[in-house]
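If you are new to this repository, start here. Below is one unmodified record pulled from the training split, so you can see the exact layout before writing a loader.
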Amino acid sequence: MDPELARKNKRIMAGCVLAVCFMIGLSFAAVPLYDLFCRVTGFAGTTQVSAEAPDEVLDRVITIRFDASTNAALPWVFSPEQRSVDVRVGETAMAFYVAENRSDRRTVGTATFNVTPLKAGQYFTKTQCFCFTEQALEPGQSVDMPVSFYVDTALVDDRNMDNVDTITLSYTFFPMEGEEDVSPTGNTAASGQPAPVN
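And here is the target side for that same chain:
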């Protein structure tokens, strides 16, 4: 075989191997990168997370509505304790959801969430939440699940948000895979209160 042709074939082969390795690495990074993108931009109604509330509270009032649903595979009744609250922009508020295990066995669920309108996600900030944390309920057990939040004051500077006077916070609970192996110690199921998570 011609030595020059052999060198070209090796370069092409090396390029193909590098391209495959790059695509595999990108596929592993896609989920955390997408999650980071959603959290930074509020894309798809993804809310923000903060450890503290803003210093300023404005006069503009936003109605926060609460919605809840449960995957059919999880034998829980899950609902908000209040349908809505009116909050001033920058004001910290707290709402409660309640979940009850209607089965005769211990079950574990985890919640996903979003807000609508989707464009409000980048301004809706939670300081305490039960979402994405395993919640274990004993047979017949009922627990209150708090969520603390505020609407960021930056909302008033966004002309695209001028027509928004209502934001809906929605949660959906799903069963955890392998829930029978989950220890209740991290969820304070015995005390009747789940551990809040920032």
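Two things worth knowing about this chain: Residues 26-45, 180-198 have pLDDT under 50 and may be disordered. The longest strand covers residues 61-70.
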